[in-house]
Design a protein that fits this description.
mainly beta, flat, 4-stranded antiparallel β-sheet, 4-stranded mixed β-sheet
């Protein structure tokens, strides 16, 4: 028995009271973060349930920049801090966005900017207008191709594109057309910024593409027509859209002897084969003897690990020093900077390309197998 003042507590009750007090005290310690010496328990971050994007304005003039803000919220709508944001735009030709959420207005139009935080996204639409209120895109009134059929078996041929266009506001800045013709499958582009007749508000423009001799035969479709006015309002139509509007889009290329053969390397050398860069830079000259029986050489190139301190040194040439593009000699030089590391450097590759896109690359091993020198000695 234990006596407190005039109250006597039996031993059995006293034991139960001590046990309950101990449990209560442990609960207090747990609530205060005492985990037996293991340190405080870190709270689990709330997952992001939604992302809200705020902008000071939903419109900007060309050339302006506005700062966007992205707020992550949990399922209860409470704002969450310290979360990483990724910004993207769906129309970079109208408005770009930086990693920090700064939107730059480029041309007239509308772009949707998206902020993504931990898999959740929010968006805002930004309208870009011109400073003088001109938001109307140019109008394509007419489009033609002359001739619609060309033959490149014996010589190159040109295709002329004519545009009848109008722009009631600032006036036309340029018109252009892209095709898969020039360059052997690479997009052929021609543009014009000066009207042949009329004015920039209502006039006729023209440009040409030269299709090289030996270009593969076939029917090629205009890829797109582009027009932009002087404040950035832009008009673009695909080949399918042009055809749907009644405009011609097909160009027929005839060639009884299509050029599908790559150029041939007939000779390769470089001088000097040893250079010293202790006190000054030094140059190495590369000479190529090449032939192409079809469209002719467009470019020759050599790559080495020399120039730029270990970065691939590249030199190219597109004009023969002697002969013609069908059978001629080309050359180019690389300057090795003073202080470049000593060593023996191999030619990495020789690359030949003709005017319709056929190409041939010779590796170090292939050059050596053909009996050409490939090693350049650098002393320092």
């Amino acid at each position: 028995m234990t006596t407190f003042g005039r109250i006597t507590i039996p031993r059995r009750v006293r034991a139960r009271w001590r046990s309950a007090s101990t449990v209560a005290l442990l609960n207090v310690f747990a609530a205060c973060g005492d985990d037996g010496g293991r340190g405080p328990v870190e709270p689990v971050p709330s997952p992001v349930a939604s992302v809200q994007v705020s902008a000071p304005a939903d419109a900007a003039e060309i050339g302006q920049a506005i700062q966007l803000t992205a707020t992550a919220r949990d399922a209860a709508g409470i704002a969450l801090s310290g979360r990483s944001v990724t910004w993207t735009t769906n129309n970079g030709s109208v408005a770009t966005v930086s990693p920090s959420g700064i939107v730059s207005a480029v041309t007239a139009g509308t772009a949707t900017i998206t902020a993504t935080i931990e898999g959740k996204s929010g968006t805002v639409s930004i309208s870009v207008t011109s400073p003088n209120g001109d938001t109307a895109v140019p109008v394509l009134k007419g489009f033609s191709i002359t001739p619609s059929t060309i033959n490149v078996a014996a010589a190159s041929a040109t295709v002329r594109f004519t545009f009848a266009v109008s722009d009631a506001g600032s006036g036309i800045n340029y018109v252009g057309v892209t095709t898969p013709l020039a360059g052997g499958g690479l997009a052929g582009l021609c543009t014009s910024s000066t009207p042949e007749s009329g004015t920039s508000n209502d006039g006729t423009y023209g440009c040409t593409i030269t299709v090289p001799r030996g270009h593969p035969a076939g029917t090629y479709t205009v890829t797109s027509v582009l027009m932009q006015d002087k404040v950035g309002n832009r008009f673009e139509r695909t080949g399918a859209q042009l055809a749907a509007a009644g405009h011609p889009t097909a160009i027929s290329v005839e060639n009884s002897a299509s050029d599908t053969s790559p150029p041939v390397l007939k000779g390769f050398s470089f001088t000097p084969s040893t250079i010293n860069v202790t006190t000054a830079s030094a140059t190495v000259r590369f000479t190529f003897a090449v032939s192409d029986a079809g469209s002719g050489i467009n470019s020759v190139a050599v790559t080495t690990p020399l120039a730029g301190g270990g970065l691939a040194g590249l030199c190219t040439s597109s004009t023969p020093e002697s002969g013609t593009s069908n059978d001629g000699t080309y050359s180019c030089t690389i300057t090795v900077p003073r202080g470049a590391a000593s060593g023996t450097y191999p030619v990495s590759a020789v690359i030949l390309r003709d005017k319709v896109g056929n190409s041939k690359e010779y590796t170090t091993e292939q050059l050596q197998a053909a009996g050409y020198a490939t090693m350049i000695n650098v002393t320092n």
